[in-house]
Structure formats: C-alpha cells, structure tokens
Amino acid sequence: MKVPKPFPDELLLSRLNRYVTMYGVHIVEFTEKAFGKDRVSVHPFLPAGIEQLAALIDENKDRIINEQTLAPLFFLFMPKHAAQLKRLMLACEGAKAFRYSQLASFSSRHTLCLKWCPVCAGKELKELGVAYWHRTHQIPGLTACPFHPVLLHRMLLVSRQRVMAGCLPSHTDAVVPAAEVEVRVARFAYELLQLNSRDMGQLDLASVYRHRLSELGFITAHGRVRREGVMKEFMAVAGLYRPAFDTDLPRNDRDYRYISQLLEPESSRHPFRHLLFSCWLYNQPQDLFKRTHSSSSASESNKLKSSKKLRIVELKCLALLRESHSLAEIYRITGKSRCYLKRLALLNAIPIETKPRALTDECKHCILRLAHAGVHRKAISKRCGIGIGSVEQVISSTHGMVDRRKLCHWESKRRRCRVKILRYRQSYPKAIRQQIKVQCNAEFFWLYLNDRGWLEAVLPKSKKPIGRTR
Ligand SMILES: [Zn+2]
Questions:
Q1: How far is the CA of 101 from the centre of ligand 1 (A)?
Q2: Ligand 1 centre from 388 Cα, in Å?
Q3: How far is the CA of 223 from the centre of ligand 1 (A)?
Q4: What are the residue boundaries of the Transposon Tn7 transposition protein TnsD C-terminal domain, all occurrences included (predicted)?
Q5: Choosing a second label site near 380 at 20 to 30 A (CA), which of 125, 149, 446, 459?
Q6: What is the DSSP letter of 136?
Q7: How far is the CA of 111 from the centre of ligand 1 (A)?
Q8: 119 C-alpha vs ligand 1 centroid, how far in Å?
C-alpha cells in the first residue's frame, strides 16, 4: 500500500484521505486492510490501530505516533495516562484511547472537528496542488494559525467515517484576522509539539511552573503561591483570548482553581490550559525543558532546606512557649498563628494561658471522655457549651484519638448495615440473594467489601443456575 509521504506537520488522517482520494480506493476495503474492520471511526488527532497500519505501509509506528498525531502533547500534559494512551493507540482500541485522553471529561466529544487555515490552504493548493490537514491546527482550543495571523476555519465531523475521499481543506477567501495572543499561543504550541515529537522526556510540570512562578516573585517566603497576583496578571493576557467550544479559559480573575489545579502534581488538565499558562510564563517552549535536570535536584535541596527552616521555627516557638510568652507576642516574633501555637503547646504538654478560658482542664476531660465514646463533634460541642473548633483541636491533639474515633465510626456503620440486612431477612424470609442485593443495595455492598464473612453467613444459599434446554 503506497500511502503518500507526509508533508511538514501533516496529520495521519490527512495522509489517509489523500491516499483514498488519489487512488480511488474503496473505503470499506481500505479500512478492512488497514484496521482489520469494515467500519472504523478514526479519531482525527488521536487515532488507534497504528501498529497494524504501520506494518501495512512499512513505516515506523513510533514515528507515526510522535510526528503525525497529537499524542506527544497528551503524553506531556497527562503523564499519568501516557503509557496507557500509547498502548491503546498502537492497538486497535480507539474508544479506550479516547477515554484515556480525558477529552470526554473536557466535554469536547460531541463537537469533534477538523480545523484549517485559509492562507495555508491557498498556498498549498498553489505550490503542492493539494491542501492538507495540519497537525498543529487540530490542537484543542487553538483558534489561530501559528504561521499566519488569521483565524482557523472549522469543519464539524458529523459522520463516524473519517477516512473519506476528498475530505481535505478547501480554498476560501474568508480570512478573519486573529488576536495577537491567539497567534502567540498557536506559535508556542507548534514549537512545543515540534520539540516533543523528538521525545524530550517527561516533565514534572507542577514543579516547573512553581519554579518559574518563584522566579517571577509569585511565591511567598513560606512557599505559598500568590494566586491573586498570578490570576490578575494572567487574566490580563488570557482575557484577550477568543472563547470557543474547546477553549478551557479561566472564568474571571478570581478563578483561583484554574491555577491551583495546574499546580497539583500529576494532575490531568486540558492541554489547552497548560499551553495558555505556559505560554504566559515562558517566552519559548525550550525554557520549559531547560530546568528539568537542574530543578529536580534543586527542588530536593529546597525541600530539605524548607523542612530544616520549619524545624528551627518550631523549636523557637517551643522555647518561647516554655518561657510563658503570650501567644500574640510569639506570633509577632515568629509569624506563627495562634491555632498553630495552641496545637504545638498541647502536643508538648506546655500549659498556656489563653484569653478565652472556656476550655478548662475539666472541659477538656469531658470532651475527651465523650470523644472516646465516639460521640459526634457537634453533640460534644453542644453538651460542653464550647465551639466545634475547640472540640476538634482537643481531639486532634490527643494521640490515638482520631484513629479510635475512626474505628468507632466504622463499627457503627457496620452495626447499621447488619441491622438493615437482618430486618429485611426477618420481614421477607423467602427473599433470594438478588432481592436482598436490590432492596438493601448500599448496605449489601458495604458489607461485601468490609465484612464479607458475616454477609455470606447471613445470606440465603445461592441457587444453582438452571441451564436452558434447547
Ligand atoms: Zn496558516
């Protein structure tokens, strides 16, 4: 099978469409040969069945994945799912690969489309005689061409059959200028994709972003992100980006979750969100990779340094507490909150005098007695006439109390579930296992997972299935 060689930045689907157009191949015949099925829905930028296709056209499967699909971008931004996504794309597991790409959760499944730049298409028709689908244009969220400051056109993919004769970009004079930020993000995405196609390795993006934010002065001395400042400046740029159905943009400059989620280690976020944010942080994508080698050792030593620093502050607080300084005074010296100091004092059995004197030794004793019996925090708070925060503080600063309460809670849940099953059995002695499972569903499964021995002993014996006679 002689599939035409790829043009620069050409999508695999584009090559297949050119092939069936040029040779007038029957589609069913082609999909049977290439993917082993007569009906196959080839995803425009994350196609599956590449191993079989690569063998058929005698090409390297890794090169196809890395250079003719958007997989490298997903591998980079979703490191947790990268290996699985690649395996599924090589096998003929299109639906599963799509699931692993997380695109479904970004709600862009129903609006799958192919995008193209009218200027690129016009130029290609003139020079090559055919216009083709560019890989970079298909990046979800991109609205502009990286090479021309114009908006991309979209063609909705309504049919499940995506390998089609003649399905290639057409010439149009409708050219709409794009905003500067849209072209900048597109250019950044194009360069990043080119870099990553050469396998630049994995990135710990959360720490790369943190490192850069720290360079820009957005991290406090205590290692916290100044999210307000970040969002304000980031929105000044992101706010100019044109919203489309697949652009994952922040809602406003108080949408702090937008940034927090990107800074979570190994979190899976929409590739466009990463592109927009990293394009704001860096001038060029190469900078993202520059500090990976130095940053891993630097972050380790930073961690060590900060834990040492914390220990020094803790020791200082303990010394001041022992010298009976007031909490307000210690706060002024060390910057540590009253809550932290109170907990530290409780853990180290240092008596402290605080202004609200409701939490007396007697009250604490009462709280601990009730907490030990597994009484709910709200009930303890009501009975002792003290705030729920104080109750929680006493509980969490007593060794072993949290574990004991967890056990109490677990046992109480088990009692409730057992009683529900037993009552149902008493009311309906003839009920079979299936009916009990349906009527007491939550309790049934809780016991199945946590107390299977008891459940099996109480349930009626399962009946042997009766075979169907022909
Ligand atoms: Zn273009």
A1: 27
A2: 62
A3: 42
A4: 186-294, 362-464
A5: 446
A6: G
A7: 22
A8: 5
Q: How many CB atoms lie within 10 A of CB 243?
A: 10
Give the Å distance between the CA of 66 and the centre of ligand 1: 22
Tokens representing residue 330 in the block = 């210690």
Q: At a CB cut-off of 8 Å and minimum separation 6, what does 366 contact? A: 383, 384
| pLDDT per residue rounded down to tens, the chain (470 residues) | 788 899 999 999 999 989 988 888 888 888 888 887 777 778 888 888 888 888 888 889 899 999 999 988 888 888 888 888 888 888 877 777 777 676 766 555 456 889 999 999 999 999 999 999 999 999 999 999 999 999 999 888 877 777 877 889 988 888 899 999 999 999 999 999 988 777 656 778 888 899 899 988 898 888 888 888 999 999 998 889 988 877 888 888 888 888 888 888 877 788 899 999 999 999 888 888 876 545 455 555 666 777 778 888 888 998 898 888 888 888 888 888 888 888 888 888 888 776 556 778 888 889 999 999 888 999 999 998 888 888 998 898 888 889 999 999 999 999 999 999 999 999 999 999 889 999 999 999 999 999 999 999 999 888 777 766 55
Contact 140, 111 (CB under 8 A): no
pTM listed for this prediction:
0.62
CA of residue 67 to ligand 1 center, whole Å? 19
Q: How far is the CA of 116 from the centre of ligand 1 (A)?
A: 8
